[in-house]
Write a structure and sequence with these properties.
Helix content: 40-55%
Strand order of the largest sheet: 1-2-4-3
Number of strands: 7
Number of helices: 6
Structural class: alpha/beta
Length: about 180
């Protein structure tokens, strides 16, 4: 059951889910704010978390409002057959290259449109999904996402060990991530 809390005057929807960590989302196009948290986390802890992220929330909401005013909120989501074919080809190339180098193998790669993620990995089944919106970005961004998701097959969490693998396999990953976010 969802509950609403407020940071300054910003309403934040809180949902308890089967997740490991407290997660914060500012969702386009209007900048609605969502926090998901494990059922074991107290509402007091969630409020403290939200208060600690106040500046970030306000900055993200402002960015979205500016984009909306400029008419950029609705990103091109239609992927042509030619773009999809090229994306599949590049994905196959990068998956083959990096699976071999990293000594891991994904059972299935799927391309699909996603609203809030560039990729996702189900470690138990070794299935990886890649966002089709990556067609609008340089190939180096797709390669970064491929390596990121494959690293999850070695280390499921975003912890020091995970980032050590990222540094080892793709030393410039931070630059690529920055390019994706800009």
């Amino acid at each position: 059951m969802a509950k609403t809390i407020y940071v300054k005057t910003v309403p934040i929807t809180v949902e308890y889910r089967k997740v490991k960590n407290i997660n914060l989302y500012v969702k386009p196009p209007g900048g609605t704010v969502l926090i998901t948290a494990p059922e074991s986390v107290s509402m007091k802890r969630i409020v403290e978390f939200a208060n600690g992220k106040t500046e970030w929330i306000l900055r993200k909401k402002e960015q979205m409002q500016k984009k909306q005013l400029r008419g950029e909120a609705k990103e091109e989501t239609t992927v042509t057959e030619a773009q999809m074919a090229r994306l599949k080809e590049k994905l196959k190339e990068y998956a083959g290259k990096w699976e071999l180098r990293m000594g891991v193998h994904a059972v299935q790669w799927t391309l699909r449109p996603m609203k809030t993620r560039w990729g996702s990995c189900t470690v138990d089944t070794k299935r990886i999904r890649i966002n089709t919106r990556l067609v609008n970005y340089p190939d180096e961004c797709l390669e970064y996402i491929v390596v990121h998701e494959l690293c999850h097959l070695i280390e499921p969490s975003h912890n020091q060990r995970f980032y050590a693998y990222m540094d080892r396999f793709l030393p410039d990953w931070r630059l690529r991530r920055k390019r994706l976010k800009s």
